[in-house]
Specification:
The protein has 158 residues and is an alpha+beta fold. It is built from seven helices and four strands, in the order βαβααααββαα. Strands 2-1-3-4 form a four-stranded mixed beta sheet, covered by helices on one side. α1 links the parallel β1 and β2. α6 packs across α7. The two termini are 28 Å apart. The model has no long low-confidence stretch (mean pLDDT 87).
Length: 158
């Protein structure tokens, strides 16, 4: 399941959620101001970074500036506790699924979260040779398949 760490006033967070909604991709939103971050949240973020804390925190944030902190002087435990107590230092949105992570919203990079079946359609790996597999057409095929699955599921439930 995709998890998106957001804040209400973040326009990039709204863009990311809209992109997932438009593509009918399920996600779990975790508003970092309403739901307290855990060590597990931060460890999951760090597992997916190339540069550790540098990738997920903004040292230009007001809290960092006010407290005159230097990441290099803090232990991992201290920095983790600092983030838990001051979640506004995180860059946003942070989008994670398994071993994939994106920090911020980037229209091209967010496509890494496209479900496998939709990627197959886009790449024309399972369609008839005559089909036009541009992105919009691929989305329409994918959405029709989802609707058919939902219809079958409702029929079987009755």
């Amino acid at each position: 399941m995709i998890t998106i760490y957001t804040t209400p006033s973040c326009s990039s967070c709204r863009k990311a959620k809209k992109w997932f909604d438009d593509h009918r991709i399920e996600y779990r939103e975790k508003n970092i101001f309403n739901i307290k971050l855990t060590r597990d949240d931060i460890v999951m973020m760090l597992k997916n970074t190339d540069n550790g804390f540098d990738d997920i925190i903004s040292t230009r944030s007001k809290v960092f500036q006010e407290q005159n902190l230097d990441i290099e002087d803090m232990s991992m435990s201290e920095l983790t506790n600092f983030i838990i107590n001051n979640p506004s230092v995180l860059r946003r949105p942070i989008i994670i699924e398994d071993k994939k992570m994106q920090v911020g919203y980037n229209e091209d990079e967010i496509r890494t979260f496209i479900p496998r079946r939709l990627r197959e359609i886009i790449m024309c790996t399972t369609c008839d040779k005559g089909d036009d597999c541009d992105y919009k057409n691929a989305l329409n095929i994918y959405f029709r398949e989802l609707q058919e699955k939902e219809r079958i599921g409702v029929t079987q439930a009755n």
